[in-house]
Specification:
globular; single chain; five-stranded mixed sheet
Length: 147
Amino acid sequence: MEIIFDPSLIALKQNISRAEEAIELAGSLLARRQICSAEYVTEMLTVYEDFGAVIVIDDGIAMPHARPEKGALQTGFSLVTTATPISFGHDEFDPVSVVIAIAGADADSHIKMIQLIASLIESDIVTFLQQENDVNSVLHFIQKQME
């Protein structure tokens, strides 16, 4: 399974004030790279509207996604960090400063993406990303974790 992740899928220190903006930006990075359709991005927003902060998976990290059949075209993820942490409405893990949007082309790929994100969380990615401003350094750090 090829996982698509390159500099075009990274946006650091973005001036975002609302969860919906962060989800939309992370999704649009995927859509521009043709990893998902525009409908998939809309579905990610719908999931957040319908289920709220369930996409906040750990301290400071949100993982917006939708079901593969909603428009995932390939397997990959995007990464957005915010200039200042924002509220997603989670009682325990707010505020969020890292948004990792995933798309899996099928159910197996979707599960593998979730496992990959879990391993990134274990590598203390939030602390690293709060201090990092260079896209290539972020790319290198994450690629090392993917090996």
